[in-house]
Amino acid sequence: MTDPSVINLVSSNKCFEGFQNIYEHSSDELKCRMKFAAYIPCAESSKTLPVLIWLSGLTCTEQNFVAKSGFQKYAQAHKIIVIAPDTSPRGCKIEGDSEKWDFGEGAGFYVDATESKWAKNYRMYSYINSELHEVIKKNFTDGKEFKVSIFGHSMGGHGAMISFLKNPNKYCSVSAFAPISNPINCDWGKNAFTGYLGSNEEVWKDYDSCCLIKRYNGPDAEILVDQGLDDNFLKQNQLNPQNLIVASQGNERIRINLKNREGYDHSYYFISTFIEEHFEFHAKHLKD
Amino acid sequence: MTDPSVINLVSSNKCFEGFQNIYEHSSDELKCRMKFAAYIPCAESSKTLPVLIWLSGLTCTEQNFVAKSGFQKYAQAHKIIVIAPDTSPRGCKIEGDSEKWDFGEGAGFYVDATESKWAKNYRMYSYINSELHEVIKKNFTDGKEFKVSIFGHSMGGHGAMISFLKNPNKYCSVSAFAPISNPINCDWGKNAFTGYLGSNEEVWKDYDSCCLIKRYNGPDAEILVDQGLDDNFLKQNQLNPQNLIVASQGNERIRINLKNREGYDHSYYFISTFIEEHFEFHAKHLKD
Question: What is its EC number (chains A, B) (predicted)?
């Protein structure tokens, strides 16, 4: 197995003075070749830059966020390295991994699968929260420890919140756009968790933000959540951000700052409109 | 034939308070159904908003600019309607219209073809400079006259410059990213002009920015041109922006403001970095 920290540059485009790069490496967790995006701002200081990890939604690759959100302007302004991984293992050729848009390829749901068919490759939780950190440290922060926050969209908003809640003290802050907030109570989540984790719903709770908020015991934290009110998936009860607020009412360590945005939908046009505010939020925490 | 001014809304996404809409209509000039993008900023005033037309490059549709450039933030800030048409007729099923990426579909080159095979449909010059203006007037400015400027990228930078230079007093200002500046002297241009206009090179000069600059007799004008210095098409001599400066030296009515950008390439990462400056440039002229 090739060392996951050995990365190959696939493409590099100068953008807002920094570089938007795409890399490829061999993932040990996922047992396949993976691509990820890294925006490296232009910075004169030799100080270790903070890192912000973006997790994308269903059907996305490492490309969507970097091509459509316009985040690079704010990553450069705040001098933050931004890492955007793919949303699932790729090319593993597991039967049924390409038939549905909401399960298998492009739909890893940021869990470590336990069902035997998926358990070897579908380990996105460990990929994001362990392996990727080592890759970042060895390649982008000169081997030094770094401050890191995490955010994402839809399935990736779910991924960001569970990553934060399950790892107190690891991430400085978390935010989400239109997250799947309570996957154990929506169709997307039930379907994916059944497939990856089996039918025991008790196990699912380890990957459900609302359950994790109730039992969170880390430092006081605010979770910034942006939600468009014309989002069809909100109307279909796939997202349920209000459940985050209900869950947080039993735990004073967590405050949900839910911003309801009149007229906005689930698209990158919504994300691009409010991405600047998310960078301001994370920059404040990453520089504390 | 359906009235070209009758437009159907294909999609609508709220973005930076305004709406990024896609419309479809029947073009009389092109004899086919065409899509175009229109960003309508949120504005309380009933004053007629100014309009900025964006022309895209080879292989693009009406989607690339609206999804990747991040322009909506600046269109909203300056309260400018932005119209981004497709780059060629579509679905006309002319033999050879889909075999090459630099000729036929996605490569209309903003000329009115005279070669018989293409002359019926490939009339992008008249589509942009006549028909589209009527569509805008009837649908977006309440039937009132409006101020309009034009800009574009690569093939669309060429299209923007020739549109401006051939129509003194029609456009308030023009700018371009990495334009094909002297098509009669590069491979892309020679190939396209031979195909659409025939072999008489004298005819080509009517669609060549450098030739048009020499004979321009309109109001004094500055053309803003952004060019990445790591642009592979610059290195392959497809763009030749320096020829604009040489051409302008014989005509004091035209000033070329060529901004060479170290390290930037031909992509939308380059465009997104400098799009704000182009909006500032056009806003100044549209509000004079």
Answer: 3.1.2.12
